[in-house]
Write a structure and sequence with these properties.
Layout lengths: L2 E6 L24 H4 L2 H6 L1 H17 L4 H8 L5 E6 L5 H5 L4 E3 L2 E8 L6 E3 L17 E5 L9 H9 L3 E5 L20 E5 L5 H5 L3 E3 L3 H17 L9
Parallel strand pairs: 1-2, 1-7, 2-3, 7-8, 8-9
Antiparallel strand pairs: 4-5, 4-6
The structure holds nicotinamide-adenine-dinucleotide (NAD).
């Protein structure tokens, strides 16, 4: 089975009602990133940071996977599909994708401020100031903030090393080091970017660009990839 690696970003969940943050105003749901998504913000105003992520968690709970998330599940019929996502929502999992690596953490989890490997499932619960882990320290959102290490990068690079097809969906490629993964697939891999406003970097880097929203573009690309397997179309290098 050939491997399809998906690098997804906020754009894949936009049509589920979850805002991206590099839209028109550069804010994330009205907040400056420096005020809510950095270790400095956490040190300065943890109540504001908790409130921001509590709101994001409620928005994720209210959202449903869309046709793009679902199409990637269908692709598993004929491919080894490995999803690497920058998103903190769980829409890939709720659609039914079986292999999802979260680079930037998960909104429905909390982690200890004393021991980063101590993680708990929150489900839909909020985190409040004074909610303590078993070690006695404050729980924080299990989110990789700007300026923090991305521990899953090594695993992501390993997954990409065996990619036959790379789909880069709904990401501005402005957030590093995650963005560098778009250029980590082996030379032989077919590269496709799906984004109505694809970043210039992919246009320069030998990608086929599908300039459509995720709910239109992803099912279209998935149909083509499934058809290639059905037709044993080796010339397209997809199975
Ligand atoms: P981004 O906000 O920087 O860029 C969004 C990209 O999606 C843009 O290139 C835009 O053209 C594209 N886009 C917009 N609507 C689209 C659609 N309907 N279909 C396809 N593409 C569409 O997003 P990013 O590159 O993922 O970086 C943002 C960071 O913010 C991520 O690391 C993530 O952790 C966080 N974030 C996550 C969520 C989420 O979990 N749903 C939402 C907002 C931000």
């Amino acid at each position: 089975m050939k491997r399809v690696v998906v690098l997804s970003g906020a754009g894949i969940s936009a049509e589920s009602g979850l805002q991206t943050f590099r839209g028109t105003d550069g804010l994330w749901e009205g907040y400056r990133l420096e005020d809510v998504a950095t270790p400095q913000a956490w040190a300065a105003n943890p109540a504001l940071v908790l409130d921001f992520y509590n709101q994001r968690r409620r928005a994720v709970r209210a959202a449903e996977p869309n046709a793009a998330h679902r199409a990637l599940v269908e692709l598993e019929q004929a491919y080894d599909v490995q999803i690497i996502t920058q998103n903190v929502d769980d829409l890939h999992e709720r659609a039914g994708s079986t292999s999802v690596l979260h680079l930037h953490g998960q909104i429905r989890q909390a982690r200890s401020t004393r021991n980063a490997s101590l993680i708990t499932d929150l489900g839909d619960r909020d985190i409040q100031l004074g909610d303590h882990c078993p070690l006695g320290s404050q729980w924080r959102p299990h989110i990789v903030w700007f300026g923090e290490m991305v521990p899953a990068m090594e695993e992501a690079v390993e997954i990409l090393a065996d990619a036959d097809v790379l789909l880069v969906i709904g990401t501005s490629l402005q957030v590093y080091p995650a963005a560098s993964l778009a250029f980590e697939a082996p030379r032989r891999a077919r590269r496709i970017a799906i984004n109505p406003d694809a970043p210039r970097e992919v246009q320069r880097a030998d990608f086929e660009v599908v300039a459509a929203t995720a709910t239109i573009g992803v099912p279209e690309v998935v149909r083509t990839l499934l058809k290639a397997v059905a037709n044993h179309d080796c010339t397209r290098c997809t199975h």
